[in-house]
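Methods, example record. To illustrate the input and output format used throughout this study, we show the complete record for Exonuclease domain-containing protein. The sequence lines were provided to the predictor; the line carrying C-alpha cells was produced by it.
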Amino acid sequence: MTIIVYDLEMTVRRKKGQIAEIIEIGAAKVDIVDGAPQVIDTFQAFVKPSVFPQLSADTTSFTGITQENVNEAETLGNVVRDYAEWMGDEEYFLCAWGPDDLRQLVQECRQHNIPTDWIVNHNNLQKMLSKIYKLEKHQQMGLKPALELLEIPFSGTHHRALDDAINTAQILVKLYEQFQFKRNKLSDEAKIESEVVYKTDHYENLPFAGLAGLFPEQSDQ
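The corresponding predicted structure is encoded as:
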C-alpha cells in the first residue's frame, strides 16, 4: 500500500484570536521497491491564504515563504484537488508528524467547504515513534530530535513543507518494519475546540496547532 507523508506550513499568528492559514503543502510518496520502502515521488504547492492574504514578517522569517510565493499560488481548494489527484486512486495511508497538521487541514477544509472524504487512514508518526521508544505521553519529540535519535541527517530547510515531509519520510523508511499503520476515517462528530498554543524552537503563541481533541482515537477497521 502507498504511504503519503505530508507536512503543512501555516501563517504565523502570535496574538490570541488570530487564525492561521495553510500556505504550503509538501508530501513524499513511499512505496515498496525491490522489497524495501523508499520515497518514489514528491508533491509541493504553495497556497494562497484567503482570510489574511498579506503575510506577516514573522511568517516569512519563520518559513521563508514570501508574499510573491503565495500571490502566485492557487487557493486551498484547488491545491487540495491537485494533491488528491497526485496521491492516486489506490488505497493509501496518510501520515504526518504530530497531530497538528491533520487538525489544521480538516479545520480549513470544513471552513471552505472542501471535501474531506480523501482524508482517510491517517497515522501520527510522532506518536508511533514514541510508542516504539516507550516515551511518556507528554514527551512529544520534535522532528529534528527524532532524526538525531535515529542518526538520520536532516536535509533541506526546516519549516518548509516538502523538506520536512521528506525528512519525516526517512524516519518512516527506517522504522517501517516496526510501525503499525491503522485504517480509519474522520469522525462526523468531531468538533473543533478552542485555541491551544503551539510552541516551536523560535516562536510561541502560534495558535494554529492546538485545537486539541478534534479527533478521537480511531481503532482498526
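Annotations derived from this record:
Confidence is low (pLDDT under 50) at residues 189-221.
Strands lie at 2-10, 22-33, 36-46, 92-96, 122-124.
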